[in-house]
Amino acid sequence: MIFENPVLGRVMALDGVVQTTERDEFIYHEMMTHVPLLAHGQARKVLIIGGGDGAMLREVCRHQGVEHITMVEIDAGVVEFCANTYRITTPGL
User: Fold this and answer.
1) Across all residues in the chain, what is the average pLDDT?
2) What does the pLDDT look like over 16-58, one tens digit per residue?
3) Are the C-beta atoms of residues 90 and 82 closer than 8 Å to each other?
4) Could you tell me which residues come within 8 angstroms of residue 89 by beta carbon, excluding any fewer than 6 positions away?
């Protein structure tokens, strides 16, 4: 479910649990992405498990050394829904 909040902007909830908000999603996704990639130092292949909103994919794409990204999402409907309705997703997802 997607709904608008006057403070957080667009909010995505799955099964009644808030997953991400438009205002602060970057904080979570940047930490989940950049810290491990920079700690590794030479990651060329990345596997994203989950991440149907595309935000982690967006962040991984910012690393020029990454040559291949595989994203696995258990619910293809989440990817389709987010790609069609959620503003934070990765263009072209």
Assistant:
1) 88
2) 999 888 888 889 899 999 999 999 999 999 999 998 888 899 9
3) no
4) 53, 54, 55, 58, 82, 83
* Sequence spans of domains, the chain: 24-93
- 77 with 12: CB under 8 angstroms? no
Tokens for 42? Answer: 């030479």
Do residues 18 and 25 touch, judged by C-beta distance below 8 A? Answer: no
Sheet with 2-5, strands from edge to edge, namely: 2-5, 9-14, 17-21
Structure tokens at 61: 């794409």
List the Cα angle 77/82/88 in 5-degree steps.
Answer: 160
Phi-psi region of 77 (alpha: psi -120 to 50; beta: other; left: phi over 0): alpha
